[in-house]
Amino acid sequence: MGKAADALSSLLCCPCRCLFCGVFSCLFSVLTCVFFAAGLVALVLYLLFRPHIVRAAAVSADLADFTLTPRTWILRHNLSAGLQLRNPNKRIALHYHGVASEAYYQGQRFAATDLPDLYQDTGETSPPIAVAFGAGESPLVGGVAAAGFRREAAEGATFSVDVKITAHIKLKLWVIRVPGPKTKIDCPLRIHRRNATADDHHRDGHQSSFQPTECRVWF
Asked: Whole-model pTM?
């Protein structure tokens, strides 16, 4: 009796198992074809357009004011920079939009500004883009940051400032525009304070001039 019941149960369950296996096998085959086709299309597009990452450099910078009030640790600043972008792609034009820039000192943001949209044709190097943060004040939090400021001020008033830029990019492939990745640019700068005193210049040996700096670009 038990063997007959087991045989009957196997006969009833077998179609369900076959149906499940068939659906699973079909779904797996479809997904495999989709992923293979997507990978093949991506490979063909890569070989066709050969995309390269954007190149960026800070070609100028001016720190008209960069002082820290004693005890209250309020950072007074007036910063501007010139950023140059190069599109190394020979078949892809770039449209930057939603461009924003922030300035950091000792890991703390002290200024921010928005920048206009920019279009770069294939292989084009843009004229320097003015990144003007203007004059302002921002609290510098923590004794470590204040100590770092006093040290750089005493060593010739040349300060380590990070200018970070983010932008959304649209790619123009011939006549087709497609959304691109969000681009992040980080420019670690060493800038001499323009309103430094004569004693600062003497300690530094001379008034430092800004050296063009390559920026890091990633997505």
From this structure: 0.75
Contact 150, 156 (CB under 8 A): no
Please state, in angstroms and rounded to a whole number, the distance separating the CA atoms of residues 93 and 175: 10
Q: Give residue 78's identity as a one-letter amino acid code.
A: N
Burial readout 37-50 (b: 16 or more C-beta within 10 A, e: otherwise): eeeeeeeeeeeeee
DSSP letter for each residue of 153-182: HHTTSEEEEEEEEEEEEEEEETTEEEEEEE
Residues 77-101: tens digit of each pLDDT:
999 999 999 999 988 999 999 999 9
Please report, as a single letter, which amino acid is at residue 103. A
Secondary structure class of 36 (helix, strand, coil): helix
Amino acid identity for residue 19 in this structure = L
Which secondary structure element, helix H or strand E, spans residue 29, and what is its range? helix 2-49
Whether 87 and 100 have beta carbons less than 8 Å apart is answered as no
